[in-house]
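Hypothesis: this fold can be encoded by more than one sequence.
Test: take the structure tokens below, design a sequence, compare later.
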């Protein structure tokens, strides 16, 4: 009888520890507390509408995967006219492309944290990018933070303001801060 009690306790602890190990690698974005910000010469703004699938295990990066979809119509430059023009054919072309997508193929350790290499798709054009990121922990609060640059013209995002024919800069800086639970 005693041995079956110990066996039961052992199995219960084993099951609970397995749940804890699995639970710690699956992350969900905390509501709308994330920031997706872009900046470049004569253009700044943010995006909302993030849907993400985050599987991240610091001890087993080979099992980790990051993917996200952003609703491109949520672009906010702080200027209503620029927001409208950013949705036009020369910019994000929302009539034909409603989302911006990223899916990692490899996650690896770097000298400053981690790197997610994968496909970034804007306007239906996919390019391989590397997104350096860190995992910041403060008690139970965990935040993925990343920064990378891209050339929007490589995705055929050519104009900041089509009416004034202002060209899109050759470099946009992208800053990500994604609190997770």
């Amino acid at each position: 009888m005693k041995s079956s009690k110990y066996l039961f306790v052992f199995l219960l602890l084993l099951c609970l520890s397995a749940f804890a190990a699995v639970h710690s690698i699956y992350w969900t974005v905390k509501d709308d507390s994330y920031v997706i910000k872009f900046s470049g010469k004569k253009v700044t703004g943010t995006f909302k509408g993030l849907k993400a699938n985050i599987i991240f295990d610091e001890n087993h990066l080979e099992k980790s995967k990051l993917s996200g979809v952003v609703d491109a119509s949520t672009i906010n430059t702080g200027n209503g006219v620029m927001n409208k023009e950013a949705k036009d054919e020369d910019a994000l072309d929302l009539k034909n492309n409603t989302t911006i997508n990223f899916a990692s193929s490899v996650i690896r350790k770097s000298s400053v944290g981690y790197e997610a290499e994968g496909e970034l798709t804007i306007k239906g054009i996919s390019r391989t990018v590397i997104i350096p990121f860190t995992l910041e922990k403060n008690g139970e609060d965990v935040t993925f933070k990343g920064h990378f640059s891209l050339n929007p013209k490589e995705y055929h995002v050519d104009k900041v303001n089509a009416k004034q024919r202002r060209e899109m800069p050759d470099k946009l800086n992208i800053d990500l801060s994604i609190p997770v639970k």
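Residues 3-23 have pLDDT under 50 and may be disordered. Residues 26-180 form a domain with the Lipocalin fold (CATH 2.40.128.110).
Hypothesis status: open.
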